[in-house]
């Protein structure tokens, strides 16, 4: 049977909800008649309504059809005649019409219990749809309005009760599950299913904001802001409590709220304020308070946040002090990962930037990465100035440590970095300019990719610092040449970009790759320039990260 053109086959409920109707279809088995001539029954209820827990309001009309076999069957059955209390089937069948309302058949069947196949009709069974009937009479349309419907429990399934667990799971799988500290997990510190108090509200705030931004659900972002307000009030009370202020819950809340600002707010002031609060909180605790497994894991996660904030301010951080580089791991030195040894070097960068800025005239300290050397030093200074000599030695010492770290890393992972074509990666909306960077690179796992990205970021800063503080004639033999430093800086910037497909194109990396790319890409943007082909591509990548995950890095990390 064909459908009537221009007319919807859906039930009234699905039509009102503007969703595709899913019908239950049944067929009448007629004895002595080939199966391809069995007749359609109507739709007692809608599968879509049934699965949604809604009360189906039925269809606009009762389906009817002409069937040449019905009259033959009825003539055979009419020889017995209708029994008492039965309706005469010939009343509607004299013109060869059959009512296909299953409720009517159900009532007829119950009244004819002694005749299970009365009128040649057996119990209907389900089968796939063959379409709706061609004709619907006015009388049957009126009858459909009063026909009995199956009894359903009238309720609507609401996801509000499951919203926070869903958002938290999404957060862990796509954000917190990919860490920048050399571990596959920060558990138990990140065991968000078992946190309580201030940390619970902080987790919910970040989870709702992250889920809402990633799925463009503004009302969920608003709910996250409400949780954020509650978490701030509780955190303030905890900081006023001498006992609670030292708890791991307060530490975890401070990091989560800083990441909330990275996701939810549109300006940099909130992120900088929270990152500064994280720095002051950890500094007040002292290095010896981070020696338990849980507190050390939280401390390891906080260090990159503190360092990036310090770099944007050109201010030294307490993290470059020897006690902070050793005491948190004093009870178990073997637990300090390769990534954390690299972060130790990263922690020194802000102090070097601060001292370098102090040796230049205030108006000239604008990093010009396009020239062989960065800003000119104060004219009154000479290469033998004690301050310049001390800074040069510190930069070179840090540079040597980084090269030793890289040698160990290369020996441990000899095949960690592989050059590949773009076809190696799964299809993605990300457009990688192979004509600019020549090839992409891939890694055995996400951790090694993260270590390689951070290494290139550190070598980028150290080579720039060494160019800004030229070596004395006595140091020329020990220090890299200007051409070597320029080449290292460009190589580092290009390698950061070549790793972008690996970080972003694999769904298993979630938001972790995007989060860890923000700072290196923004650093590269200053080198390439916003109007260069590389710079325009980087801005497209940052826009894609913002649209997909809600991370607005260019508004958070101030220009280097």
UniProtKB/TrEMBL annotation:
Regions of biased composition (Basic residues) lie at: 124-135
Give the residue ranges for region: Disordered: 73-147
Q: Which residues cross the membrane?
A: none
| Compositional bias of kind Polar residues | 75-86, 98-117, 136-147
What the entry lists under InterPro entries is as follows: Osmoadaptation_assoc
Coiled coil ranges: none
The source's superkingdom equals Eukaryota
PANTHER family (UniProt xref): FINGER DOMAIN PROTEIN, PUTATIVE (AFU_ORTHOLOGUE AFUA_1G01560)-RELATED (PTHR38111:SF2), ZN(2)-C6 FUNGAL-TYPE DOMAIN-CONTAINING PROTEIN-RELATED (PTHR38111)
Q: What is this protein called?
A: Zn(2)-C6 fungal-type domain-containing protein
């Amino acid at each position: 049977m064909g459908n009537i053109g221009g007319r919807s086959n859906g039930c009234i409920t699905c039509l009102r909800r503007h969703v595709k109707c899913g019908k239950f279809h049944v067929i009448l088995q007629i004895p002595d008649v080939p199966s391809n001539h069995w007749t359609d029954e109507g739709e007692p209820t809608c599968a879509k309504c049934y699965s949604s827990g809604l009360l189906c309001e039925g269809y606009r009309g009762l389906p009817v059809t002409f069937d040449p076999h019905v009259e033959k069957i009825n003539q055979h059955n009419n020889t017995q005649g209708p029994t008492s209390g039965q309706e005469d089937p010939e009343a509607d069948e004299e013109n060869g019409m059959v009512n296909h309302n299953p409720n009517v058949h159900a009532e007829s069947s119950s009244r004819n219990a002694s005749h299970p196949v009365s009128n040649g009709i057996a119990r209907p069974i389900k089968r796939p749809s063959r379409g709706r009937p061609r004709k619907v009479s006015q009388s049957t349309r009126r009858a459909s309005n009063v026909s009995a419907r199956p009894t359903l429990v009238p309720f609507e399934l609401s996801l509000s009760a499951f919203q926070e667990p869903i958002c938290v799971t999404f957060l862990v799988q796509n954000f917190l599950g990919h860490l920048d500290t050399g571990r596959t997990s920060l558990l138990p510190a990140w065991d968000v299913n078992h946190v309580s108090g201030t940390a619970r509200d902080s987790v919910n705030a970040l989870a709702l904001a992250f889920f809402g931004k990633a799925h463009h659900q503004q009302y969920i972002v608003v709910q996250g802001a409400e949780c954020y307000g509650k978490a701030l009030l509780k955190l303030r009370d905890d900081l006023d409590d001498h006992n609670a202020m030292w708890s791991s819950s307060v530490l975890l809340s401070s990091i989560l709220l800083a990441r909330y600002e990275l996701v939810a707010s549109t300006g940099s002031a909130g992120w900088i304020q929270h990152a500064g609060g994280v720095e002051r909180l950890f500094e007040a605790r002292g290095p010896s308070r981070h020696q338990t497994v849980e507190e050390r894991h939280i401390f390891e996660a906080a260090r990159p946040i503190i360092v990036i904030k310090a770099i944007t301010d050109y201010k030294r951080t307490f993290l470059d002090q020897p006690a902070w580089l050793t005491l948190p791991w004093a009870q178990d030195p073997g637990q300090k990962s390769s990534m954390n040894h690299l972060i130790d070097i990263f922690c020194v960068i802000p102090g070097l930037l601060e001292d370098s800025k102090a040796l230049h005239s205030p108006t000239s300290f604008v990093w010009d990465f396009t020239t062989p050397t960065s800003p000119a030093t104060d004219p009154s200074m000479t290469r033998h100035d004690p301050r310049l000599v001390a800074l040069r030695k510190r930069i070179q010492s840090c540079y040597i440590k980084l090269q030793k770290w890289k040698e160990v890393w290369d020996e441990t992972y000899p095949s960690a970095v592989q050059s590949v074509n773009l076809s190696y990666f799964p299809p993605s909306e990300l457009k990688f300019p192979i004509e600019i960077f020549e090839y992409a690179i891939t890694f055995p796992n996400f951790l090694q990719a993260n270590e390689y990205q951070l290494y290139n970021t550190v070598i980028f800063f150290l080579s720039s610092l060494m160019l800004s503080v030229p070596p004395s004639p006595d140091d020329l033999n020990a220090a890299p040449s200007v051409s070597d430093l320029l080449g290292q800086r460009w190589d580092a910037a290009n390698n950061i970009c070549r790793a972008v497909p690996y970080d972003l194109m694999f769904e298993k990396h979630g938001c972790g790759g995007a989060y860890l790319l923000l700072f290196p890409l923004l650093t590269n943007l200053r080198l390439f320039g916003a109007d260069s082909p590389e710079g325009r591509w980087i801005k497209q990548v940052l826009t894609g990260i913002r649209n997909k995950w809600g991370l607005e890095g260019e508004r958070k990390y101030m220009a280097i």
